[in-house]
Amino acid sequence: MNRSTKIIIEGITLEGRLFRPSDWAERLSGRLATFHNQRITYSPLLCPGVKDGYSCVIVDPRLQETNPEFFDHVLEFAKVNHLKTSTTEG
Question: pLDDT digits over 21-37, tens only?
Answer without folding.
Answer: 999 999 999 999 999 88
